[in-house]
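During the reporting period the student researcher (J.K.) took over the structure-prediction task from the postdoctoral fellow and processed the backlog of single-chain submissions. One of the processed entries is reproduced below for the supervisory committee.
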Amino acid sequence: MSAPLLRVEGLKTWFDTPKGIVKSVDGVDLDVGRGEILGLVGESGSGKSVTGFSLIGLVDKPGRVVEGRIDFKGEDLRTASPARLRSLRGDRIAMIFQDPMMTLNPVLRIGTQMIETVQAHRKVSRAEARARSVEALGKVGIPHPAERIDAYPHEFSGGMRQRVAIAIALLHEPDLIIADEPTTALDVTIQSQILAQVQKLAAEMGLGLIWISHDLGVVAALAQRVAVMYAGRIVERGTIDEVLDAPQHPYTAGLIGSTPMANERGKPLRQIPGSAPPALGRPSGCPFRPRCARATEICQTEPPETLTGQHGWRCFHPLQTPTEVRA
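J.K. obtained the following structure tokens:
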């Protein structure tokens, strides 16, 4: 089996505040291969976005990556210089933000921004950079790209602006894209179109994609594997079918149970009791313990990972009987 494109081991990103240390990411392990889409899901505040920013060195102070290894194509990005990270960002690793206006400058034409992006990493003429930009816009479904490239961001709809942001991420045919909830603000029709386009591009270009979302429905339709995050930790991971059809962790089951089902029309949604722990007051042991009906005294200690094939979870009282335990 070939090595994954990206392997993250023991990643910890903490924020120093006047009231104490906020452990936004507290020991995350994940990996993604070429042509694979990995969904990273969880409630708001679970550490998903900070994980994405940590991978490419975009955590601002007072945040800092304090521990872990980020292995990208055999290179540990934790030890990379700021100049090396700048050369990788936008070239071999790209990021798509939730709000496309975090990518787009409202006072510059789309073409100007895309051409500058190309020339920042490649010594090519402006004409060649423009041609590459037009081609990228066409790949993501922008109609008449040779004309629309001269428009300003405000002349595009929200869905089209997000397509432009995706096109910019694809300009250098990166090896890895990190997408931070890029379709959350879009209506379901546009969302469906973009998801289909992303899936197609990942398969055609062989790029790895980490899709950060709180929407299990989107991840189920898009990804091959999923990692469920809670309070800064991965509590369950595996293939889409394994995790969504046979969840082991009570938190994963709670997320699935709170999702509207077509065959349960009119029934109230099931809620996870309580709320996520405060950033400065996370409990010892299993972070889900205060909200879990299955919790016992042993849950005050850190649960090891139980692993069956690709399916892994961290829980002393899973919904089914564990078969293999890895500390």
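The committee noted the following: Confidence is low (pLDDT under 50) at residues 322-327.
J.K. will present the remaining backlog at the next meeting.
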